[in-house]
């Protein structure tokens, strides 16, 4: 069987005329005269534009490859015996009593009200438009929000001196949106890539904007190249090329300018450079970030080959960084090449299992193992439980990228519709929000009059996390684990022999063998 669906996808707005061949994805009978609705046909007209999910700026995208092993190949163990972390009393050990808080940081001083945080919300248009909803949602939910790469570099109103950013209204907007609602739980992380570092973004956000948590970025699960966005004006393309980005096609080329003006070229691509990881430079960067005032330093790495994962874990251990986020293949994106999203990298389950093996080796030597977060195609409470269990005791949190974005966008969409409805009727908009959102009354009681200033996307995100919390509490109570820190690998079982072999988790037919022998004598 084929795990992929080449040559047609809703992501690229392509399809086939008849059933395709499973390997090539080409229609089994490709007929002369067909207009070519498939990726090959669209590429014949639009070329490189068809590399990416579309419409750009209005979507997030995630891999549709059906990997041979994922989190559905594990089930959560339940038990009727005892309670861990609480008195084993039916009136005390109720599921609402489950503690779903967690901590990260080398000293455990970054506290999260729930063990999730956002994916990097960076320089794509959809990220810019929805930032306030996601940032405020994170602040009122007590979780981390990550401001992704290239924000300052993409800011048309940014000011530079000697090639370094000295002011970025867009970055200030993003930081201030979070800080207004921040209550001490969670936090905001600013992320940097090659271009950000050259532009002096770390120094700017740490020293001038008071950012305490700074993240170095090696990559992500959706792609193994630098970030990219699409540009729809030649002036914007020229501006970003001057700032040091790779822009394709070259907007300074007269032939390209002519093609753009005639309509033959409709857009440009801005690309970031590839990072070049070296151990010495990694440690220099960590030391520099701390020297300019970063209280916490974190690292985000992607679905690279296992040796690179070993580098990420070992370097992070030696530098005593505060959080290592590992993003597996299948992860989401605001914009990445579509086939790359589906056909490169180590899938999340396998990547986490490799990470666990490596952490065990370091721990056996008495080395520091940084708090780890797992990302890559996760969305619901059972995913959170299984990912924490699979990587226990090292995995402390889960990065939810597209899922959190989805909740925020849906909350915003329905909030806008409700606002229009209430304004047409001449009624109080807040009254409409209270009837729309199940958690509206709770937030109104908590924030009082300020409730009307909470973006509805943030309410949607808060409501989604609240649902995840109760769902996780129920699963944990069924396992009799009453705090996140008590979840371990024995709390899940493998449903297939392949999943058991990959993970080292007991197959369902092998689980509890020793205890069974003890019980039965």
What's this entry about, in short?
The chain is 40% helix and 15% strand. With 521 residues, it is α/β, with parallel strands linked by helices.
What are the key terms here?
521 residues, TIM Barrel, eight-stranded parallel β-barrel, three-stranded antiparallel beta sheet
Describe the structure.
The chain has one domain: TIM Barrel (Alpha-Beta Barrel), CATH 3.20.20. It has helices at 39-46, 125-141, 151-154, 169-179, 194-198, 201-208, 234-242, 254-262, 279-291, 306-319, 338-343, 348-364, 381-390, 402-425, 429-436, 440-447, 456-478, 497-503, 513-520, and strands spanning 61-62, 74-76, 102-104, 110-112, 116-121, 144-147, 159-161, 164-167, 187-192, 213-217, 228-231, 246-248, 268-271, 296-301, 323-327, 332-333, 372-375, 395-400, 492-494. Helix content is 40%, strand content 15%. The model has no long low-confidence stretch (mean pLDDT 96). The strands form 6 sheets. An 8-stranded parallel barrel has the order 5-6-9-10-14-15-17-18, surrounded by 8 helices. It has a 3-stranded antiparallel β-sheet with strand order 11-13-12, with helices on one face. The chain starts with 38 loop residues before the first helix and ends with a helix. It is of the alpha/beta class and 521 residues long. It has 19 helices and 19 strands. Helix 2 (125-141) crosses helix 14 (402-425) and helix 10 crosses helix 12 (348-364).
């Amino acid at each position: 069987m084929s795990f992929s669906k080449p040559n047609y996808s809703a992501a690229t707005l392509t399809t086939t005329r008849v059933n395709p061949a499973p390997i090539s994805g080409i229609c089994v009978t490709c007929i002369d005269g067909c207009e070519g609705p498939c990726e090959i046909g669209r590429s014949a007209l639009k070329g490189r534009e068809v590399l990416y999910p579309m419409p750009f700026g209005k979507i997030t995208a995630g891999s549709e490859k059906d990997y041979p092993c994922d989190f559905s190949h594990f089930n959560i163990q339940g038990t009727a015996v005892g309670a861990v972390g609480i008195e084993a009393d039916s009136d005390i050990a109720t599921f609402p009593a489950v503690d779903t808080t967690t901590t990260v940081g080398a000293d455990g001083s970054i506290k999260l009200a729930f063990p999730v945080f956002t994916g990097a919300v960076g320089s794509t248009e959809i990220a810019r438009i929805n930032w306030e909803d996601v940032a405020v949602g994170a602040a009122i939910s007590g979780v981390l929000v990550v401001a992704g790469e290239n924000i300052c570099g993409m800011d048309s109103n940014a000011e530079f001196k000697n090639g370094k950013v000295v002011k970025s209204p867009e970055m200030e907007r993003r930081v201030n949106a979070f800080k207004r609602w921040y209550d001490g739980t969670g936090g905001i992380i600013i992320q940097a890539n090659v271009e950000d570092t050259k532009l002096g973004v770390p120094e700017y956000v740490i020293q001038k904007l008071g950012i305490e948590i700074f993240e170095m970025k090696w990559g992500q699960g959706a792609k193994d190249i630098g970030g990219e966005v699409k540009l729809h004006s030649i002036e914007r393309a020229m501006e970003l090329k001057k700032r040091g980005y790779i822009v394709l096609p070259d907007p300074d080329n007269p032939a390209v300018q002519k093609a753009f003006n005639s309509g033959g070229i409709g857009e440009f691509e801005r690309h970031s450079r590839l990072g070049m990881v070296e151990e010495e430079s990694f440690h220099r960067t960590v030391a520099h970030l701390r020297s300019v005032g970063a209280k916490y330093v974190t690292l985000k790495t992607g679905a690279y080959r296992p040796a690179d994962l070993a580098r990420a874990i070992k370097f992070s251990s030696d530098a005593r960084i505060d959080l290592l986020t590992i993003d597996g293949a299948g992860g989401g994106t605001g914009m990445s090449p579509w086939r790359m999203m589906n056909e490169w990298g180590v899938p999340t389950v396998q990547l986490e299992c490799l990470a666990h093996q490596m952490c065990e080796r370091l721990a056996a030597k008495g080395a520091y193992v940084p708090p780890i977060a797992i990302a890559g195609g996760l969305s619901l409470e059972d995913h959170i439980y299984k990912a924490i269990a699979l990587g226990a005791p090292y995995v402390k949190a889960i990065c939810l990228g597209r899922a959190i974005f989805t909740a925020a966008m849906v909350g915003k969409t329905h909030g806008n519709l409700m606002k229009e409805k209430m304004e047409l009727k001449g009624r109080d908009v807040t009254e409409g929000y209270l009837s729309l959102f199940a958690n509206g009354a709770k937030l109104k009681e908590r924030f009082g009059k300020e409730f009307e200033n909470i973006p509805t996307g943030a309410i949607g995100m808060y409501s989604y996390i609240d649902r995840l919390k109760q769902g996780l509490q129920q699963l944990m109570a069924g396992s009799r684990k009453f705090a996140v820190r008590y979840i371990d690998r024995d709390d899940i079982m493998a449903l297939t022999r392949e999943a058991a072999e990959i993970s080292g988790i007991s197959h369902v037919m092998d689980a509890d063998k020793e205890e069974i022998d003890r019980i039965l004598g």
